[in-house]
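Session log. Operator J.P. requested a structure for one protein chain; no other inputs attached. Running the standard single-chain path with token output.
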Amino acid sequence: MTDLIQRRSDDDEEVPGGVLLAAAAGGNEVAWATLVARYDRLLWTIARMHDLDAESAADVCQTTWLRLVERVDRLRDPDRVGAWLATTARHESRRTLRKMMREKARNGAAALNRASDIAPAPGADDAVWHAVAAMPERCNRLLRLLFLTPQPRYSEIAAALDMPIGSIGPTRSRCLRRLRTMLESDGEGRDIA
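Structure written below.
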């Protein structure tokens, strides 16, 4: 088998993926080297197309090769090993992006949680912030995150408050209505207008 792979690669004749995979599964180092030489650039390109930095792209490539090693005997169509590698690299790239986004959201959520404890800026209407402080915790924190944090992202707010992104807008509306009602009264439900 090694002779066949070596002769074909010397003659620039492409060895079929199934033949390479079978030889690689049997421990043939030349077959593994040929697979890597043939497909590593493709994997790298796929990872970089997902806007991953060089380190993350290298991790995706390494994980993709590891997945092949783990499943080398179980591929349904060994001749399509290149397509399998490309698909796996896309999945790994997306998984890496999701992980990075979760970490970013957690870091943003921690910053937003700290921001929700800050006082309003000097000169802000004290009556508004006293009313916000008197609101239920969920509304209090949501309004502070929305209005005291520079350019907050809904994904960060959702992570900070442990609520679905789709609930932020409706909850914000209900909280603002409640705030308006509180400001129109004296804070205890009595109308002062």
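Operator note: Confidence is low (pLDDT under 50) at residues 189-193.
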